[in-house]
Amino acid sequence: MSRVVVVGGGLGGMAVAARLAKSGHEVTLLERSPDLGGALGSVSEQGFTWDAGASYTLLPAVLRDLFRKTGRPLERELDLEPLDLVREHRFEDDTTLALPTSRAGQLRALDALEPGLGERWATHVDSYTEDWEVLRQHYFEHPWERTDLPDAVRRRFDSREMLHKRLKRTLKDERLRDLATFPFLADGHDPRNVPAWMGLVAYLEQRFGTWHVRGGMARVGEVMAGRLTTRGVTVLLGTPACDVVLRDGRAVAVRTDEGEIEADEVVVAVDPRGLPALAPLVERTMPAIPPVVCHVGLEGEVPDLPHEVVLHGDPLLVVRTGGQAPEGRHAWTIHGRGKIAEDLLRALARHRIDVRAQLVHRVDRSPRELVQQWGSSPLGVLWQGRGTVRARLGPDTPIPHLHTAGAHATPGSGLPFVGLSAALVAERIGPA
């Protein structure tokens, strides 16, 4: 039985702790805040509850595998339900697209917007089929060897083609380019710096759909916290890690304000910039900055919107309507990016979604406040070109017995990729 110390109690940390404990390791998890969950938590005030981070997920098999490998299957713990729409897009030319999750539905919806758009979009999405199959086998679902990559993976990682360039070449309609770039713009990335192969997100949305948890995505964190107890993980809340202790060039402990916790393996599931032993290894990376966030509680008649509406332009606005609220009330979250020179609700009203008269409560969070709350950006590493994929750590690091998981580790941010990062670390460490 190995002693494993996991730093960070977000989804990545909880997932790797549960996996390793189930496989026989003695696991201690350290979390700086008084609660587990990180960005997978919720915000509750005045009877309203909003998801603090993600409100839906892709690749439901990642969550199903996590629950199956650590205890009771997901279906016995949570109601994970498919969404009919990926999201609704409102473009700058005043056209609107309700984008279904299925291929056939997307073809119909786009052709209704303009004949021929559906086939062009389908061709674009289909072009990522091989990218997904290659990278799924050798990067996303199995620990990768940086110095021994298959040729098919190396060609993609070494390519100088960025997403913006590919889209400009293959999609002449600006609205289609908006569809393809939105997931990256929403997370603070510049498509000119995102590798073209990452456009496979559109393929994942269409191939596997978008899913949400009844009661909010924070339920995933709540159930996982209970699973740590079931698996016998020692959880130390309010215990920030000061650094990883190295002796003879390998990780042997984690230092806290209360002393050192010895370990045979250390897993860092937080931003490595915050730990002196790891910071020099990621000095060439930068964090992706969170958006401006406004959680609102509304009362009375409001527009009937789907779970997510994207208002394209500058600023880019995203409205999520799936919060929990008392009878007759509504809980929405608005994200803003770009040139934000006015209140988000006023900016929203300019798009003919005016709920200022229905407002009964609001909670505002600036990007800086969100980073301070979580100790780092939950959006992981900023894409700065093709080199970012190698500059990001995980599942291994150059330091023996020191691993990384979570949004700042391979294969990246977002609930499914964070879940995969935990699986990669668990596979690398192996059973006790």
TrEMBL record:
InterPro entries: Amino_oxidase, FAD/NAD-bd_sf. Its EC number is 5.4.99.9. The keyword Isomerase applies. Keywords: Isomerase. It is an enzyme of class 5 (isomerase). Residues 11-429 form the Amine oxidase domain. It comes from the Bacteria. GO terms for molecular function: oxidoreductase activity; UDP-galactopyranose mutase activity. The keyword Isomerase applies. It holds the Pfam family Amino_oxidase. PANTHER family: PHYTOENE DESATURASE. This is UDP-galactopyranose mutase.
